[in-house]
Structures are given as C-alpha cells and as structure tokens.
Specification:
The protein has about 290 residues and is α/β, with parallel strands linked by helices. The chain has 12 helices and 5 strands. The protein is globular. GO terms for molecular function: phosphatidylinositol bisphosphate binding.
C-alpha cells in the first residue's frame, strides 16, 4: 500500500541562529549570564514569586519577566501576575498545544505563520503572519490566538533574553470581516494578556501590503487601546518595501518581502514542524 511521504524540511541556512528544538531531557536555560544590578533584580524577583505563591519556576523561566521589563521590578511583578492570571482564567488557550489536532490543522490551512531563523542586528526575532484566503468562514480567532501563543512559547523557553519581537502582518487578503471577527471574538482576558502579560519586549509592528480602506480604518481606531502600541506601528502600502528594509534588514525577511531568507511558505512549513516538535516540551514546561 502506498504511503504519503513526509514533506521535505527546509534545510538550515548558514546564517540561521534559531535554537534547536530541545530534547526529552530539556531543562529551561538561557545563554546570557546576568551580573550586577540585573542579577540582583532577578534574585529579588525570584524571592517575590515564591512569597506570592506563584508557580515555582527556575531562574531560567523567570528571567523573561525581568528582562522584558528592562529589569524594572514593579513592572516585572505586574507582568508576572497578568501572565499567570490569564493562564489560569483561560486554560483552553494554553492547553492542547498540538499541531495534529483538527482545529489547529484547520487554522493552519487559513493562515501562514513564520518565525524567521535569523535575528536582527539588535537581537530581535521576527515573526510574520498572513492569510491564505480572504474567506472568513474558517477564520477562528481562538485558534489564531492559540497558534500565536504556541509560537511565542517556543521563544520564552529557548530565547528568554531575546532583544525583542518584530511583528510583520501581511494584510494583502485582510477584509473588514476579519476586523469585525477579531473585535467581537477576542476575549477581554486575552487582550489583557496580549497587552501586559506577554513577557517579551515588543519592537515595531509592521503592516505590509495594507489596503487603503484598512489604513483609513486604522487611523479612525487610534483612539482605542494604548497610544504606545499605536506608536510602534508602521503601515506599508503597496509593494514598495524600501521603508521596511530600512527598519528590518532583508537578511531577516522572506523572499516575498524582498528578503534573502527562504519563501514565506517554506518558513511556514519549518515553523509548523517546529511547533509539532515542541509538543512534549509544551506539555512538560508550559
């Protein structure tokens, strides 16, 4: 009986710096030794976590909180409280992180998501997402969130002191129906998590191939949410990526965006396989 061959994996490039998927004996760690005030901040934060009765965790899992908040203890404490509160209040979003499940496979037929395997010169990791179709029938916000959370978790576990995250959203196939679904379907608690509970530095957000009507709608929405989040956003209309390249080097972009990395589809396949390989790590450490 004929069998379906497993898709060929994208071979790592010579300039890739994405950490390998951990083995079964994985223990959280990080590659940056803290000294001075940073080391003291982590020590004080770890003592506070234990005193607060928050989930016990090694320093390698706590460092992401202080690092993402520039070692400001009060900000790190708030981030940690929101992080653990949201996970407790929304268990459905943080369990069953398994790419073989029908709902995850279904949303991966609708969206493209990719982690670029080369950091920017300022040590940030680039994440890109786009839509495969403008049809919103199978565009399920809860599942979109779940895939995004899984991807971020791989960074928490293997790169907790990364310089930041650069998000690139390709809006080529986005419609107002997608916006309405997002506004009406996104749980309020998830908004709290996205705004304050994610322990990672957020760099600029780039909206590429942005349709004119969507750009106008975004300008009308600027009074919503936090101004600092809007200030981080850059809109790129049309197929001119000159400004994007001035902020994110081509060496950190897929070929569709004028970059030197593999195609977005190849990076998507690599990313989905990476999420699949993290299944047991998620179960044990997330």
């Amino acid at each position: 009986m004929a069998t379906t061959a497993e898709p060929a994996r994208t071979q790592p490039g010579p300039d890739w710096d994405l950490p390998a998927v951990p083995g079964d004996d994985f223990q959280p760690a990080w590659d940056q030794q803290l000294t001075g005030s940073h080391a003291e901040a982590l020590r004080e934060f770890a003592e506070w976590v234990r005193a607060e009765g928050l989930p016990d965790a090694p320093d390698a899992q706590l460092v992401k909180f202080v690092h993402s908040c520039d070692y400001d203890l009060e900000k790190a404490k708030k981030c940690a409280k929101d992080f653990y509160w949201c996970r407790k209040e929304m268990p459905d979003f943080f369990t069953n992180w398994d790419t073989s499940l029908p709902n995850i496979q279904g949303i991966l037929d609708v969206i493209t998501v990719a982690i670029v395997p080369r950091r920017t010169p300022d040590n940030s990791r680039v994440i890109i997402n786009s839509l495969r179709t403008s049809d919103t029938t199978n565009y399920v916000i809860a599942d979109v969130c779940k895939v995004s959370l899984m991807l971020l978790e791989t960074i928490f576990l293997t790169e907790p002191t990364v310089g930041g995250i650069v998000m690139i959203h390709d809006l080529d196939k986005v419609t107002f129906s997608h916006f309405f679904k997002m506004l009406w379907s996104m749980p309020k608690k998830m908004q709290v998590y996205m705004e304050d509970g994610i322990p990672i530095k957020r760099d600029r957000v780039h909206l590429v191939n942005c349709p004119g009507l969507i750009d106008k709608a975004l300008k009308l929405m600027r009074h919503m949410g936090r101004q600092e989040d809007w200030d981080r956003m850059r809109v790129h209309k049309g197929g001119d990526y000159t400004e994007l390249h001035s902020l994110v080097p081509p060496e950190c972009l897929p070929s569709e965006l004028g970059g030197t990395q593999p195609s977005l589809e190849d990076l998507h396949d690599m990313t989905v396989q990476r999420l699949a390989d993290f299944k047991e790590i998620f179960r044990k450490h997330s």
